[in-house]
Amino acid sequence: MRILITAGPTREYIDDVRYLSNASSGRMGYALAQAALTQGHQVVLVSGPVDLKPPEGCEFHSVETTDEMRDASVAHFPDCDGVIAAAAVSDYKPRERVEGKLAKTGGPISIDMIETDDVLAQLGAAKGSRWVVGFALESQNARENALQKLRAKNCNWIVLNHPTAIGSLDNQIELIDDTGHPIMKWAGAKQDISNQLIQWLETNLPDSSRDLG
Ligand code: CTP
Ligand code: CA
């Protein structure tokens, strides 16, 4: 299979030197990429800025903003059999990026923010016979929220994890299907979990998507 993986955080610039982002390390996405490569698949890795080396053998696309992640993902999805969206995409961006550097005002300021495009939702809407695996980071009503995201973004499955996973070497995940039930649970090092998730996908994908070759 040829698998598109999104990873890492995105950055949204306030001016030319300042941005809003999050603490994602990119480890889960990179571990999934490594797992897929080790198991003989091709990987297209679209990654926000992280401190990790892209796994050897993947097709690597470095991006910074959500718009760039969207463009790279939409461009490469048609050549892939499926996508795993592990990126911690910024939900908001400043309405305007100020040219140069904002000076201090001597008092509080507020920044007008608008929602970013949902990369996974765009891929889900265009999936055709491809498969789509999303991630959901939840601190409350976890399974319920994960199921809502699965439906809203047209995913086959969604990987539920907890905010403590951000920046950590370990993770605890549940794979949720379209009935909202956890069909698999894994805990441990992100690399071990990733190996098991890729293996699980390989054996449980619908035949129609595997036929794509
Ligand atoms: N995602 C995306 N583009 C966005 C926001 C999220 O592709 N602009 C993807 C993430 O990569 C993840 C899934 O959508 O696979 C769910 O992300 P999450 O942050 O848990 O959910 P949101 O839909 O952003 O909702 P909220 O943050 O409000 O819970
Ligand atoms: Ca979000």
Automatic annotation (TrEMBL):
SUPFAM superfamilies: CoaB-like. Signal peptide: none annotated. GO terms for biological process: coenzyme A biosynthetic process. Residues 2-202 form the DNA/pantothenate metabolism flavoprotein C-terminal domain. It comes from the Bacteria. One of its GO terms (molecular function) is catalytic activity. This is Coenzyme A biosynthesis bifunctional protein CoaBC. It comes from Polystyrenella longa. The gene is coaBC_1.
